[in-house]
Amino acid sequence: MLYPEAHEQCYRSVEERRPIERWHLLEIVELHTIATCQ
To answer: From which domain of life does this come (predicted)?
Structure first.
């Protein structure tokens, strides 16, 4: 089971990597976040 806090921290890490492209690659970021945080 994925904890919200851990998911949020991982998601923030992805945001820091792509702060500008995040809004444009939202779907890719979500998939990357899920795959990374599993």
So the answer is: Eukaryota
